[in-house]
Amino acid sequence: MGTPLRVLIVEDCEDDELLVSRELRKGGYDVTCQRVETSEQMAHALRTQSWDVIISDYCLPNFSAEAALVVAREVRPDLPFIIVSGTVGETTAVSAMKAGAHDFLTKDRLVRLPAAVERELREAGVRRDHRRAEERLQGTFERSALGKAMISCDENFLRVNNALATLLDYPREELERLNLSDVGLPANAESTSQPGAQPSDNANSRRLEQRCLRKDGTVVWVDASISMIPDAEGGSQYFIWEFVDITQRKRAEEEKRQMQAALAQADRLSSMGMLAAGVAHEINNPLSYILYNLDCLADELPDVTQQVGRLRHALVRHMGEDALRKVAGSSINALDPEPWTDIVERFHDALDGTRKIKDIARGLGAFSRVESERRGSVQLQDPIESALAIASNEIKYRARVEKDLRFTSPVMGSEGKLSQVFLNLLINAAHAIAEGHVDDNSIRVRTWEEGGFVLAEVSDSGSGIAPDHLPHIFEPFFTTKPVGVGSGLGLSIVKNIISSFGGSIEVSSERGRGTSFLIRLPAATNAQTDGDDAKGPQMGEWVAGRILIVDDERGIRDALKRILKGHQIIEAESGEQARDLLIEDQQFDVVLCDMMMPSVSGADLHRWIVAHCPLLAPRVVFVTGGAFTPSAREYLGTLENLRIDKPFNAAQTRRIVGEMVRAAKTERGNEFGD
Length: 674
Prior knowledge:
Layout: E1 3-10, H1 14-26, E2 29-36, H2 39-48, E3 53-56, E4 59-60, E5 63-64, H3 65-75, E6 81-85, H4 90-99, E7 103-106, H5 113-138, H6 140-143, E8 147-151, E9 157-160, H7 162-168, H8 172-175, E10 197-199, E11 205-213, E12 219-230, E13 236-245, H9 247-319, H10 321-328, H11 337-368, E14 376-378, H12 381-395, E15 400-405, E16 411-413, H13 415-431, E17 442-450, E18 453-460, H14 490-500, E19 504-510, E20 514-522, H15 526-535, E21 546-550, H16 554-563, E22 568-572, H17 575-584, E23 590-594, H18 602-612, E24 620-624, H19 630-636, E25 643-645, H20 650-673
Parallel strand pairs: 1-2, 1-3, 3-6, 6-7, 15-17, 21-22, 21-23, 23-24, 24-25
Antiparallel strand pairs: 4-5, 8-9, 8-13, 10-11, 11-12, 12-13, 14-16, 17-18, 18-20, 19-20
Helix pairs in contact: 2-3, 9-10, 9-11, 9-16, 11-12, 11-13, 12-13, 13-14, 17-18
C-alpha cells in the first residue's frame, strides 16, 4: 500500500490526468484525485475537501494556471502548486514560479513528478507551520473561514475562532471551556496512531477525518489538520487544529456505500428469484404427475374398497367364512375392507402433503416473477397465500396465523410483485414477535372490498414501532433491525409497488401492542377483466381431437394422456422430435408444448411452427412449470397463446383442450364449406 495522496488536478484532458496519476503511483503514492476545469469547480473542491497538492496544466480553454494560483492563494495558500505543461517555455515557467507556483515540469519529464511532490509536501509542512505562527501574530486566526482552535496538551480548548464556534453550534465562550472529548474528538492529540489519522511529512503535524458532535448532538464530519507548536525546549507547547467541514462528502460516501449494498442485495435477490424459478420448475414437473395420480387414486380407491367389501360378503355368503379362509390362505387380508380403508386415508394424507408442496412451489414461482412488469387482473388472495406459504417457517415458531380472506373483485397488478409486498409485511410481522410464545401471539391477514377498493390488512401482536420511527419507515435505507439483518429497503419497495398499482399503504402502531399495515388497491373494472376472461375458451359439446404432446418428462406425457383419454394422442419427447413429426404431419387440433426443454425449447419450436405451419401456431398451448429464461419471458409476452401451469388442474386442462379441439374442427369445417 502506497503513501496516501489526495491530488487536485487542474486539467481539461482526461488522458493527461491519467498520465499524472500513473506517474505518482509509480512513485509509491496511493493516489486519490479529482479533475477540475474552471475557477468555480476548483474553489468548490478546495472549500469542501482536503488536498495534499495541486497539479495544474498551464493553459485550459476556460481557465489557466495563473488564475488557478489566484484561487489557491485565496482558499488554501499552504497547498503545494505544481505546474505540468508541454506547451510553454522557460520564460513562462520563471514567470509562473514568481507568481507563486512551487515547481514547473514539462510533460515529457513527468518521471520527476513524484520527487517534486515529495519535496513540496515537505516544504508545505514547513510553510504551514510558519503560516500558522504568522496567523497567531497577525490575527488571521480570527478571520479564517476555516474552523480553528488552539488546544492544550491536556486536550482543552484554549481559544477558538468564530468559524469553529459556528461549525459546532456553540457560543465561543462556552466552547473554550470544553475538552476535545466533549465534542466527540479523540483524546491523546499527540498520538499519530488514531484511527483515520494520516501522518504528515512534518513530524510536528498530522491530519485525521473524525466525527464531531454539535451542541444539539447532531454529527458533523471534519477533516482536521493538527500541528504542534513547540516550546523553547522542543516539547509540545500547544496544538493548532484546523477544521474543514466534510459532512456532505461523508454523507455522499455513505449513500454510495448504502446504494452499493442495496445493489448487491438486489443482485442477490435477482439470483434468488432465478434460483426459485428453477427450483419451482423442477418441483412442478414431477409434482404434476404425482399430484394427478394421487388425486385419481384417492378418488377411485374408496369405490375399490367398497367393491372389496361387497366381494368378501358375497364369497362368505356363497362359501362360508371357513371355506373362504381355507381357499384364500394368507391372502385373506386382501379381502378385508379395513386395510383398504387405511390405504385410502394414507392416500388422502399424501395428497394433502403434496398439495402443500404445490402451494410452496407456486409461491416460489410467484416470487421469481417479481421482475415482470406485465400487469393483469389478480385475485389478491392468491399472492397472499403464496407469501404465507413461503413465510410459514418464519412465522410458525412465533405466532398463530389468522386468515379472513373474503371474496373480492380482482385488482390490476402483478402477482409476483404483490407476493413480494405481502412476503415483506409478513416477515416484518414475524420479526416483531419473539420466538416461543406461539399461543400468545397472532399475525392476522384479512381482505375485504369497500367503495371501489380492495383492502388488505396485515397486523401483528408484536413489539410495535416507536413513535419517532413511524414517520420514516417507508424511507429508503431506514431500518431498526441490527446491522446485517436488513437493508432498509423493504418497506420503501413495498410502498413503491403499491403506488405503481394506483394504491396506498398506511401504518398504525402502538409500542407493546403491535402494528397494522392497511393496503388499498382499486378494484379492477369489468372492462379491465373482460379481456382476461375472453382469453380462455368457453365450454361446449365434447369432441374427440388429435393432440400432440411435447414434453421431455415421460411422467408429464403419461399424466396428460390419462387426463385427455378419448382423444387421439401423439407424443414427442423433445422439441427436435416434435419438429420432425410436424414436417411429415401437421393435422393436429392442439399442440401441448412444454416451455423449457433442452436444445429446442417451446419458444424455439413455436417460432419454427410460425414459419412452417402458421395455421397451427395459434393452437399451441404452452405447458409451464414456472421457469423462464429472459428471452423466453420476452417471447411469451408477445403471444396470445393459452398457457397451462404445472401442476395442472385436470378439469381445466380437459376444458381448454376440448374447446380448442371444437374450435379447430369448426374452423376446418368452415374452410371446407368455403
